[in-house]
Write a sequence for this structure.
């Protein structure tokens, strides 16, 4: 196993161990988790049943509807029925939905019990499991009820990726491309030269890519856990993306991809950025969409109620100064609506490198 960590500073600093390239069964024994409660995505249980035969398992339904308040309360009632106590541990095994639910329950059940994550999707490995933000949904509004609480550990067993559907590989690469856009020019160039098949066929390079992205996000989070500054950069593509996700009922990564291209276009009219087509080409290379056929009015309805919107009817929006450097720009909601209405669909001449 390869070990690393990130630390949240403060009066009582919190260090989160990162366990890369670990074997799940060995990790359970090493960390004495045999009595923990494992909240496991039902699809993970279906494809990897042998990993959980001797463990206390609570199955979690797949999909975003699992983050509805009523369903999360059902899970809390099951924890009560299992007589889970404050000295017990919760372990979330699944994608971003399971990480959100496990973190939320861990932070609130009996006023807080220890929890950790074993992310099983590429998106969860490089993004959703990191940073301590744990949210559940209120109606159509995403992550409106939540906590900021760090996991006791995050452990990575890449064998779970063997059952990952094709679309989930693309979803994960949406967040990887985001990290490259806001922080890592070299990574962006690497992504331009490679593709999903390359990383799937080269486990060592995939492991390096995952660890690199974990360090990008954990480095940002360590500097700004409460999202008062640079952590906002991680919202690149997400303001529009969350609206698209709800309006089109599409996957998170696909929605964020559309949001990133739209934000790249906004970057071109609000600053010196001129490489939106280059971003679109990379997104298409990783089988992600850039087209959105809806109306700006629909997007603004959700954006106005977004948790990132401020009381003065403005929003701290993320634009690109150049590839590898995101910046925070305060924009009024009125100005944002005007800019969105002026946007056009992607140019048809965008080329994907081969």
């Amino acid at each position: 196993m390869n070990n690393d960590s990130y630390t949240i500073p403060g009066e009582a600093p919190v260090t989160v161990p990162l366990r890369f390239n670990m074997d799940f069964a060995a990790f359970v024994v090493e960390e004495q988790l045999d009595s923990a409660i494992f909240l496991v995505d039902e699809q993970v249980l279906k494809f990897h049943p042998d990993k959980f035969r001797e463990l206390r398992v609570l199955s979690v339904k797949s999909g975003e509807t699992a983050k509805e308040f009523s369903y999360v309360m059902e899970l809390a009632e099951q924890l009560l029925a299992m007589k889970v106590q404050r000295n017990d541990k919760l372990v979330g095994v699944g994608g971003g939905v399971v990480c959100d639910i496990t973190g939320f329950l861990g932070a609130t059940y009996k006023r807080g019990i220890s929890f950790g994550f074993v992310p099983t999707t590429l998106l969860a490995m490089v993004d959703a499991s990191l940073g301590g933000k744990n949210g559940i949904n209120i109606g159509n509004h995403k992550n409106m009820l939540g906590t900021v609480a760090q996991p006791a550990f995050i452990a990575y067993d890449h064998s779970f990726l063997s059952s990952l559907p094709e679309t989930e590989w693309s979803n994960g690469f949406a967040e990887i491309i985001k990290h490259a856009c806001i922080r890592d020019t070299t990574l962006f160039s690497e992504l331009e030269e490679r593709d999903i098949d390359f990383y799937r066929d080269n486990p060592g390079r995939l492991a390096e890519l995952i660890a690199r992205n974990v360090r990008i996000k954990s480095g940002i989070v360590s500097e700004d856990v409460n999202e008062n500054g640079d952590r906002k950069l991680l919202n690149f593509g997400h303001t529009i993306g969350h609206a698209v996700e709800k309006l089109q009922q599409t996957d998170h990564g696909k929605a964020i991809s559309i949001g990133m291209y739209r934000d790249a276009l906004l970057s071109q009219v609000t600053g010196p950025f001129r490489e939106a087509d280059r971003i679109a080409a990379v997104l298409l290379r990783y089988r992600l969409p850039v087209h959105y056929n809806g109306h700006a009015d629909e997007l603004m309805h959700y954006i106005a109620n977004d948790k990132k919107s401020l009381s003065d009817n403005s929003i701290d929006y993320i634009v690109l100064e150049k590839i590898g450097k995101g910046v925070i720009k305060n924009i009024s909601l009125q100005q944002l609506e005007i800019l969105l209405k002026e946007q056009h669909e992607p140019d048809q001449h965008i080329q994907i490198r081969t």
Notes: The chain has two domains: 2-163, 166-342. The first helix runs from residue 24 to 30. The longest strand covers residues 314-322.
